[in-house]
What we know:
2 copies of one chain form a homodimer.
Chain A: H1 6-23, H2 31-37, H3 42-48, H4 52-68, H5 82-100, H6 102-114, H7 122-146, H8 160-171, H9 178-193
Chain A binds a DNA duplex through helix 2 and helix 3.
Amino acid sequence: MERRRGDELLESLFDATFQLMKETPHTNLTFQQIAEAAKTSRTVLYRRWPTTFDLLQDIYTYKARKLFEGEYFDELKDTGSLRGDFIQLLTVYQGVYDEIGADVMNNYFYIRMQDPDHSRETALHTASLEKHQQAIAHILKNAKARGEKIKKLSKVTLMLPFDLIRMENMARQANISKKRLIAMVDEVLLPVFS
Amino acid sequence: MERRRGDELLESLFDATFQLMKETPHTNLTFQQIAEAAKTSRTVLYRRWPTTFDLLQDIYTYKARKLFEGEYFDELKDTGSLRGDFIQLLTVYQGVYDEIGADVMNNYFYIRMQDPDHSRETALHTASLEKHQQAIAHILKNAKARGEKIKKLSKVTLMLPFDLIRMENMARQANISKKRLIAMVDEVLLPVFS
DNA sequence: TAAATAAGATACAAAATGCACCTTATGAGC
DNA sequence: GCTCATAAGGTGCATTTTGTATCTTATTTA
């Protein structure tokens, strides 16, 4: 009989758990069910995680890692205007949310907050923070080079484009329209940044 | 032997559960433990909720109700300037977060998203949304009466002050300083609204 | 090819679940 | 006051889940 090992096994454990969560709210997950769904024995699970909560932490950091390590921001082109660049940025970032699902992102924040010393993913988180900061810095640099006036803002405020998308996806569940993205740029981002 | 009934009982069930959650991540809560902590029998719990998840939904909507039905916005005075009004608004709203805890708010959003048809608290949610909209409308009306110029913005954008506070509390766990609140007003809200 | 490693199976006591059924305190009605 | 309906609290039981220990076996690596 074939045996899955290492990452291959890990991924199918994650997949099975994820599959189960679509049916049951994950507060009620059991190792028994997961083992069954993943066609393995509980032993394999207990060896890795003391509780289902720990498993979930790993699932979401895994999903988040795949997300954060993506080259999404590398696709960003110079559209010729700050406005165009912002629209492109929001569109790409919203695309990430559409792809991975708002609930995963939501869960990531949730799990993060539950973890007293969110020890396991600080490195990941700071790395992703840096990527986000760089994306903004790049856009603003281009704008300045073009001669567009850019305000000096505090570091936290620079994250506003991402915060807007996040909030929109967390608080309001309706699909985010292109129109809304453009409104974010025209009503919020441009007045704030330029 | 004395028996707690109705709301009194309900509240002490909530309290006991809440107490337990400080020790255990709530993914691992059991009815057994809760019943023990609340000094009652499991029967009482099963009569009310099929799973711990359902209990949690009720807890957070209860907590949220106490929050949303509060008269926080009624305290808002006319400070004489839009800037002052915004600072006051953010301070009051941040105070709410400090009081009730960012994790409760986080959980509220979380539970809300898990619930496919968040059926139980839609009324509550729209009521609170209205309160928020009114608070903003009031501030803007005063500003206009004073002769300050106010931009015409889409309905969703009007929620920006609250979105900022929410995001700040969800994504970044450090305590929000007065300085940061003022920066939000000067760097974001004033450029957007006026 | 042998040894090390990790997956998977089995067993078992303890805890938790989900019900059914029973007892009893308490508030509402007369 | 007294009675009765209601809801709280208790008990018992079959089933599921947990946590752990122990053993077998597939697969990697040296």
